[in-house]
Fold these 2 entries.
Entry 1:
Amino acid sequence: MNETSSYREMELLVIFDLPVGKKAERREYTKFRDFLLDDGFLMLQYSVYFRSCTNDSSADKHIGRVQAHKPKYGNVRIIKLTKNQFEKMIMIQGEKSEQELIDKPEGLIII
């Protein structure tokens, strides 16, 4: 992969904090989380999901989808990063998740 193409590929981070005290709130949380998984997002940490996009317009399409499926209550944020910026994330404690390792081209496993 050349240097220019890594800047075209985007990563979306969806960060959320949703109430789960009531049964209806837990349903909203589950519905939102299931949407993220169905839309190709992978869990990075609890309440932090990421998705690779081939380019900026694909990222914008998925941002629109998240906005259309936002829960009624709580806090949801989206951060759009280049692939290069995402790969430069500094891990302070712990290890990279399995999803992060598989998401990299050299981590692709074909069976």
Entry 2:
Amino acid sequence: MNQILARIWLSFWHLLPANPILVRVVGGASRQRKHLIYRAVYLLAICAVVFFSIVTIQGSRGLNELAKEASQTFKLASYTQLALMCFLAPMFTAGAITQERDAQTYNILLSTPLSNAQIVLGSLISRLYFVFSLLLAGLPIFCLTMVYGGVTSSQIFESFALAGCTAAVTGSVAIFISIAGVGTRRTIFSFYLVIAIYLLAIYLLGNWSPTWLDAAPANVNGRKMSVLSALHPFLALEVSLNIVRAPDVPLVAGRPAILRHALAFPSATYVVWTAATSLVLTGMAMFFVRHGAKTGEPTFVSQFLDRFRRQASGERTRTPHVVWKNPVAWREAVTKSAQGAGGLMRWSVIIAGAAASVGLFLYHLTDPAGMPPTIVKQWLGGIIMIQFAIAMLIATNTAAVSMTKERESKTIDVLLCTPLTSTYIVFGKLRGLVSFAAPLVAVPVASLLLFGVYSLLPGKSQGMIWVETAVELAAVMVLTLAVVCILSLKVSLTSRQTVRAVVKSLAIVILGTGCLTLVTTTITQQAGQAGTFFAPFSPFSGIRYLLYPDTLSTSFARQAASMRFLGFVGSAVATGVYLIIAFSMYKSLVTNFDMTMRKQTGT
């Protein structure tokens, strides 16, 4: 019996604590400077949010006011922590297997005596170790908010549990996709895109009044808890922070047991189902570890499908392509190699965005009372924000893999042997990338034009949306995509691995856009009626306040004309600023192109 227990303990010891992958990654990466930078940036972000909250909150210094300020600070810090977890968890975990494949060591790893469970758990836990260490590093900052009251230890525990389980489920899904998929260089981008769509879509539905639970009490703003709160981390966090309240158990007693607990305890339900999903996906991933090694071997399904595919013998013809004047731009925008972000994904986003906008327009036409102009503008703004956020992610990923794919496929050597100059190559890359991402902006612009022209018709919702807003936001969004493409192209040029280029580009774009939106939103709110001038300097704040300018003024009817003019001037100035930034970055990229390529070739 003792020998059996010893064997069980030894198996468990080698499975987790003494897992070779876990020991190697944790022991080696803990001494890397980049992980020190990650921790420092994470803590600085939370500290900046806390400091920003303390500075901006006005009021007296009584104990009650201090407790309210501490509660508000804790809420902002919790939102920031959860958002960072949604970003950092897939970044750390999805790179576990892809880095092995990029370094050509994955097959060597499969040839070792390590079991499937050791490979999966070692990769997952070693990456989640850094995520959970970030959570623990921020714990003292959250504990400081308890000094003045207004924050309980249970709220801190629930906030950390939601963030930790979110990291665990995103990490387990990323590991499962990385191991089960064969081509995994786009795993991070695809997973980020799915996360963004899920979080934004469910959150918007949760703020829609038809999804509110009738049995839940309303807060001071008249908002109730959504029935989707148990499925979304931010909606569950709102219940934990008492922004909205969950109904008492007797009020939902007539529902099934699982649904009853999900409605009465959404935070606990979210923790339970995400933890269970993590365990299931981790177990399923163990069956796919060595499945990829057999890829390419004939199977019954592949042999059956080969009967209907085009055979090698016989004449094969196709219509020749019409290439642009700049072949580099055409290759980036049209050919299959440039569609690393997925042509299917791009067209899916375009069709879904158009369907959502047309559906919203028809809903307003058929039921103006049920969908008044104020609600229309809120939904239209959310739809456009989602579409533009996806467009930025697609543009970032496509530009980030532009040069690394050339280098990994050895086609960069062929390109450099041609008479093409660095200016020709860089401009072609940039033009092709912008042309690839520009159709994603066409749908939001067309939606704005549709509602803007409709508001001009007599007897309709006058002034619901300014018609020139479509042109203003179109210029800002296109030039923002150009800046994003140039920035990601520069990262791709200086990076040796595709995954690292994608992760670095996504981090810069997401953090930069978030900080810019935060600053622009604050300035816009403080400026009052002049806020329409500052809003377009960030595309997201521009979408929000140019569609809903009456939130910036208490006497909007009298000041609408001046605010409309300031919005036009601000959009023109913001467009000029983005144009100058894009041109300066482009010139710098052209100037350093040859030297950067020599350094990459030499190393």
